[in-house]
Amino acid sequence: MTATEVAADVLAPLAIDLPAVERGAVLPRGFVAGASTCGIKQSGRPDLAIVATSGGPASVAGVFTTNTFAAAPVRLSQRNLGTTHAGVARAVVSTSGSANAATGAAGDADQQRIGEAVAGALGFAGQPEHVLHLSTGIIGTRLPVDRVVAGIATLASQLSSTDDALLAAAEALRTTDSRTKVSTTSITLSSGDIIVSGIAKGVGMIHPRMATMLSVILTDAAVEPATLHAILRGAAARTWNQLSVDGDTSTNDTVFLVASGASGVQVPRETESDARDMHSFAKAVEAVARDLARQQAADGEGASTLITCQVSGAIDDAEARAIARVVASSSLVKAAIHGRDPNWGRIVGAAGNARLADAALLEAAGIDAVSATQRAGRAATVAPDRLRVSIAGHLVFDGRNSGPIGFDRSAARAAMEASEVVIRLDLGLGDGIGEAFGCDLTEQYVIENSEYTT
Amino acid sequence: MTATEVAADVLAPLAIDLPAVERGAVLPRGFVAGASTCGIKQSGRPDLAIVATSGGPASVAGVFTTNTFAAAPVRLSQRNLGTTHAGVARAVVSTSGSANAATGAAGDADQQRIGEAVAGALGFAGQPEHVLHLSTGIIGTRLPVDRVVAGIATLASQLSSTDDALLAAAEALRTTDSRTKVSTTSITLSSGDIIVSGIAKGVGMIHPRMATMLSVILTDAAVEPATLHAILRGAAARTWNQLSVDGDTSTNDTVFLVASGASGVQVPRETESDARDMHSFAKAVEAVARDLARQQAADGEGASTLITCQVSGAIDDAEARAIARVVASSSLVKAAIHGRDPNWGRIVGAAGNARLADAALLEAAGIDAVSATQRAGRAATVAPDRLRVSIAGHLVFDGRNSGPIGFDRSAARAAMEASEVVIRLDLGLGDGIGEAFGCDLTEQYVIENSEYTT
Q: Three-state SS string across A399-424, please?
């Protein structure tokens, strides 16, 4: 779609150029998985999951929370992957019910023991650095590490290569999530078919008792770690970094992308002659990431409506994303969507406050380092006399026509009675597009978060 | 108070070195004021206010919203004051009920007519640039400018130099504010006594139907415009820019500081030999600004509790303020305070997300331009193993003692049953202090903002 075509129709959703996904658990070749109850959660629900490779080390890349109080599992995973946050691994272990955050040196030692237990149980004792860690739950409590280690020993013998085993792992990631989050796609590269499957839980700190957004994306493609990391950073910049439930960022947020190579299908580096396969693979990863992010937004605490804000006509994609993010994050916009109020004044007001991300995020989104430093934190460019806004397919503001316009308010309200409301902005300035995901702000959010919980 | 003394007691509120204020309307010498009902608001409540000088042009400085969609009154005030946002003026006119925002060229012409009407009615026709403008209310509606102009003609003949006239102006600023916001202080400089009085309404976009935070601070001291502007920027950086109700910034936010000089008491420039008077005056302005900001936070939409977050032991004041702001703005912290939950995990998590303000705000807070550019948007420095946190006088986290500590949860909850809850953080790193103001997040906030309002 060209910018002109996009600008021609601010009423329609943006066409996002990504492969189709399905919401199913499909375990790619080269992996085994499983889950069990080891006794972290008082509820007795599953709280331990392992996803491991069945054929030796796999390529892996990670992206992590930027919170200064990064939890013990985050810091250990970062240390295992090294400064590039990419490398090889043989297993991902997840505990839920305790975040192992703000637990000091004792918490670090607990997490180290868990890594050694996984490596020992899976037959690569002496290489605990090949274990990556996820954890989610209460901040400031120690993990019951003896029970976790015992659970690992049992679970390691029960891992399976079935799709149900991946679904079980996805379920064990959950804390107060109301739905299990899975997504999968299959694409054909020049040397064969590959699968990209993801599991996820939570979003931001929407579930403070059981904090954290976690995701693991698996593929049977053969991809170098550095390529995986570049693809993961780009996909995260367009999906999870565009997701907001309440503006808080947990101490434990983590996404891993793991490539077993078991399909025998190589994904070449971008620098190699034919980049088509690399781009196809990147789009498959992003499609799964986007679908998981949308599931997370829709399942936001207390939420009844998924809010998708799509921006076209920006100076570039980074500006479009900044504007989409601030609109989808605005408490006032979120409350208006909850009330089915086509309140364009709040949308326009929010767009006028948009600021570009920090330099690291701009670089992850493909902006060169010098330009990223110069532009970080600056106001995004919006021209009031060129802006057009639609809500749920109804044009509500046209800056090229003096701004406020008459529209059928009852029809707009009726169109907003849906599980997803799309807010479209066209800035009329350039070719940049971007989107962001959020959810409505409800009384239930306040009730759930003001209960006495600690 | 030295940093050591501050660090020694994380349980006590910070001692803020500012003169005492009273919550009364006291009109300084050299001003007249008044308010009336001209027919903007359908409720028939006062919607027009004028504060004017009684003795010719006064020094004035302004700070304004950073929203790209700045309203017509903001842009006209900025044009009248020139690029320095400081100069001279003879009147401030305020309309409430319509924001005159997103109204295009027609809205600009309306605001221009209002300025000409005020200048004509007050006897300085031909100098409409000596009128400054405030407006608040619905975004996207035109002002009923004929009625406003007629109202100005009548009101101009009724302006008075009584304190009640200032109170009436403060009341006419109100839209959905539940309380009138006034604050005053009197200080003695080397050549005599002066008064600093402020009026204000709203905060951020807490009242979206009637958007905007507005304030006018008046003094009878004689001060040059450039000095006023430096003082106002510094005070705003420590008060209004540390205030958050819901994270949105309106299209109309404006603060004016007007000095009539009618006391005959000169406030010299900082560069002159004795800077004591300038510093005393700056503290008086900040005391009034801080008190108004606290009144605004306490009156936040749906709020039942004022949240004051005070940070000591930071590397510098800019870092302390960044951390205080992110804690006081966190939806999760706000909801926890509403539920009287001493949930230190949310406070620690929020502190770990703190980022410094943008370069302009850092410069306003006294950081040199080069350093401001380098540090803008960077993460604030927090060392988990040195942080200590108290809530309502109860120590709840001590990073120097492995973090989570036992505390009397019932006593902490009981102490939180107050109209103001103080969250204290000591970072143990340096001498920097700072504070921020917010309010709890309640079901009522959501209800008020999700109603069908436009």
A: HHHCEECCCCHHHHHHHCCCCEEEEE
Residue A335 to residue B67, Cβ atoms within 8 A: no
Return the C-alpha torsion angle A325, A327, A329, A332, nearest 10.
170
Antiparallel, parallel or unpaired: β A420-426 and A306-314? parallel
**Nearest alpha-carbon partner for B133 in B227, B218, B197, B48:** B48
- Tell if the CB–CB gap between A449 and B443 is shorter than 8 Å: no
Closest-CA distance, B260 to chain A, in angstroms, reads 34
Q: What are phi and psi of A385, to 5 degrees?
A: -85, 5
SS3 A438: strand
Q: Which of A65, A66, A67, A68 to mutate to test the interface with B (most CBs of B within 10 A)?
A: A68
Tell me: the pLDDT tens digits for B227-263? 999 999 888 888 888 877 665 667 788 889 999 999 9
Closest CA to B319 of B373, B378, B397, B232: B378
Which two structure tokens, joined as six digits, stand for A17? Answer: 């150029």
Phi-psi region of A197 (alpha: psi -120 to 50; beta: other; left: phi over 0): beta
| Interface predicted TM-score (ipTM) | 0.72
Residue B137's SS3 state is strand
A335 with B106: Cβ contact below 8 A? no
- A33 against A299, higher pLDDT: A33
Distance from CA of A134 to the nearest CA of B (A): 17
Interface contacts (A, B; CB < 8 Å): 244
Write out the DSSP string of B278-318: HHHHHHHHHHHHHHHHHHHHHT-TT---EEEEEEEEESSHH
Cα–Cα–Cα angle for B170, B175, B178, rounded to 5 degrees: 80
Separation in Å, CA of B241 to nearest CA in chain A: 14
Catalytic positions of A, written as ranges: 212
| pTM of structure | 0.80
Residue pair A33/A165 in contact by the 8 Å Cβ criterion: yes
> Rounded to 5 degrees, what are φ and ψ at A49?
-140, 145
Confidence tier at A451 by pLDDT (50, 70, 90) = low
Q: What are the phi and psi torsion angles at A400 (to 5°)? A: -80, -10
Pairing verdict, β B403-404 and B394-398? antiparallel
pLDDT at B1: 38
CA A272/CA A385 separation, integer angstroms: 45
Q: Beta-carbon neighbour count of residue A123 at 10 Å? A: 10
| DSSP conformational letter for A208 | G
HSE, side-chain direction, 13 A CA sphere, residue A367 = 24
